[in-house]
Amino acid sequence: MAAPRSGRRRMRWVVLATVVIAIAGGGVVAVRSMGGSPEISAEKLAKVERGDLAKSVVATGKIEPLTKVEVKSKASGLVKSVLVDYGHSVRQGQVLAELDKEQLHAQLREQRAALQATQAALASAQASVERGKSTRRIRICPSSSRISIARRACSIAESSRGPTSRTPKRPTRSPSKSSSPPNAASP
After folding, report:
1. Least buried of 17, 126, 154, 167, by fewest C-beta within 10 Å?
2. Is the pTM for the entire model greater than 0.70?
3. Is the pLDDT assigned to residue 179 strictly greater than 60?
4. R_g of the chain computed on alpha carbons
C-alpha cells in the first residue's frame, strides 16, 4: 500500500512544479513587454510647439448626422443669393436665400393676364345672355305675327283656287323586276 501513496505524492510535486514554472515564465514575459522602452527613430521625434493640428483621415463608410433638418421653401425658382454660410447658426423665420424675382414676376404677369382674359370671357358671356333674353322677346312677337300672316295667305290662296281645283298627286312608280332602289338609274 505504500507504493500507491508515493505515486500520488510524486504526481502532486510534478503538478506543483509545473504550475510554479508557468507562473514564473508568465511574469518574465509580462515584465519584458512592459518594462523595456523600445528605441524610437529620430524621424518620429519632433520638438514640442504650440499650434493648430491638422490630420486627414481616409475611410470608407456612411456618415450620418446626429439630427436631420429638412429645409423647405414655399416658392420654387432660381436662387439669386445665399445669405448664410455653412455652419452658421440660424433662427426660425430668418431668410436663408433669395430667389430670382424676374421669373416670379413673369409668372405673376402671366397669371394676371389669364385672369383678365377669363373676366373678359365672363363679361362677354353675360352680355350674350342678356342679348339673348331681349332678342327672344323681340323674336316671339314677329314670329307669331308671321304665322298668322302665313295662315291668312294660305286661306286666301285656297279660296281663290276654288272647290274643283285639287293639287295633283305625284305619280307612284310601279315595282320593277329589278331589285335596284328607286333612285338608281335603270339600264
Report:
1. 167
2. no
3. no
4. 58
